[in-house]
Amino acid sequence: MAILKIARMGHPVLSRPADPVEDPTAPEVRRLIADMVETMVDAQGVGLAAPQVHVPRRVVIFYVPGDEDEDDDDDDDEAPLDDESSPQPLTVLINPEIEILGDETSTSWEGCLSVPGMTGAVSRPDRIRYRALTPEGEILDRTASGFHARVVQHECDHLDGILYPQRMTDLGQFGFNEEMERRLRQEAAAEEDEAP
Length: 196
Ligand code: NI
Fold this sequence. Notes:
Order of helices and strands: HEEEEEHEH
Shape: globular
Strand content: 25-35%
Distance between the termini: 57 Å
Bound molecules: nickel (II) ion
Low-confidence stretches: 68-80
Number of helices: 3
Number of strands: 6
Radius of gyration: 17 Å
Structural class: alpha+beta
Largest sheet: 6 strands, antiparallel
């Protein structure tokens, strides 16, 4: 296993469509996935696509951490356990395809290991179905919502040469992490002052 170098926005490998994987069980695919996992853990990301490590193949990995969906209001106690948006273990998708379900969208902050130090607000469909092959060559077919749906869409965009800033409609909501955090803190404080 090895920690791989991560391509940054502007590198051509990030803007070309990636090629399908012919044999998901091939040794070189297994090796690529192991290296991607090590690289993602080292970089403290929640997702990584093969083009980000300079390999133009349709492979992504991701997981959904337990406390990431705190702005998801539909996770209240009375609601039945929502498998779609609940935490997900490390998952590998090979040749994934996404189908958008419904018209609802939501806007949330995203970051990307290929756009280090920056964050931006991105609007995306709320609910999706995705199908992919697993490293064992089996078919995976899931629906997802909330952060789960967002991270899958973000990672699969990498396979089509799309980075999240290209999905943004308001570049005024794009900036360096520290500055955006400071701005949000100031806005929250101002709102508190205004509250009766
Ligand atoms: Ni990314």
